[in-house]
């Protein structure tokens, strides 16, 4: 049993080292688990809709509930025209959700505990927001950075708004990454306590304490895994809403 | 004498009612810890972005324009970042308040 709680986040190369343009692009455990996540999502929905019936079975109703859930989420935050982005939000939500949940399986690697993964997802979201904004409103999209204020104050307010917009890149990615990192580290630390106490002779019965904590934290992590995927998807919708409707219009 | 139209209307009403209730349920309640974490990340992220931007501007000016602006770009942008952070926190607070007010209704 490894005593280093951070060891679970280490990235190992699987197979040969591959270098491209001076970057190490070898296949790693990280890439492997990304493939597993994508494969699991695909398998789940392929199985769910392979034999569709008018009265859905168990798998099919799970797929239908997922559809309704994401569709309602988009409708309530970005309005009906936000539904054009349903495939985008749906993919992001399920990638994050499955990464979080598969990461909870013992010995599995948590893809979303790597900041570069969450940052890449966030960058994708913000890039989409900016592109959609410019496509829909043209140069008028820049009005997003100009609040209603006297001209003199705008000199101060426009940079603040721009920083506030850029902040989302950091806050969105860090929130998901930090939650997953903290939860998994906590689990590993308590697991380390169990091992250390279990090997401590007459102190061994005390190990039941951290053991119980693992159960509680495990349950909490289940909640966090879902909640963080939900938060990520909702914020994606909210940002898309801003790009679609600029400010003022609420849904 | 077919009774369907009336029955169907009542069924429709019941379906609408059920749908509305489920929509209210799916709006997840943010936990106090979640709210605290959200405010924290918003503030720190804004400070980090502001500081980073200022540092980058200082570096770019020094590197390409040959102007020694260090540390003033960073000083100004950290303050702007703090302002942006407070603005983000206020925005998040209004969002959470609005969602809780609409749930209590």
Explain what the structure shows.
The complex is a heterodimer of chains A (251) and B (105). With 251 residues, chain A is an all-alpha fold. Chain A has one domain (7-245). In chain A, 67% of the residues lie in helices and 2% in strands. Chain A is globular, with a radius of gyration of 22 Å. Chain B has 105 residues and is mostly helical. Chain B has one domain. In chain B, α2 (32-65) runs antiparallel to α3. The longest helix of chain B has 34 residues, at 32-65. The radius of gyration of chain B is 26 Å and the shape is elongated. The mean pLDDT of chain B is 82. Chain A binds chain B through residues 69, 72-73, 76, 156, 159-161, 163-164, 166-171, 174-175, 178-179, 227, 230-231, and chain B through 23, 26-28, 34, 37-38, 41-42, 44-46, 48-50, 53, 77, 80-81, 83-85, 87-88.
Shape of chain A: globular
**Uncertain segments of chain B of ≥5 residues (pLDDT<50)?**
none
Q: What is the string of helix and strand elements of chain A? A: EEHHHHHH
Which stretches of chain A are low in confidence, meaning pLDDT under 50 for 5 or more residues running? none
What string, H for helix and E for strand, traces the elements of chain B in order?
Answer: HHH
Return Rg of chain A in Å: 22 Å
Strand content of chain A: under 5%
Roughly how many Å is the radius of gyration of chain B? 26 Å
* Estimated helix fraction of chain B: over 70%
Mean residue pLDDT of chain A: 88
The CA-CA distance between the termini of chain A, in Å, is: 51 Å
Strand elements of chain B, count: 0
Within the largest sheet of chain A, what's the order of strands? 1-2
Specify the helix fraction band of chain A: 55-70%
- Structural class of chain B comes to mainly alpha
Q: Which class best fits the helix and strand makeup of chain A? A: mainly alpha
Number of helical regions of chain A: 6
Which sheet architecture does the biggest sheet of chain A show? 2 strands, antiparallel
Count of β-strands of chain A? 2
Hey, roughly how much beta strand do the residues of chain B contain? Answer: under 5%
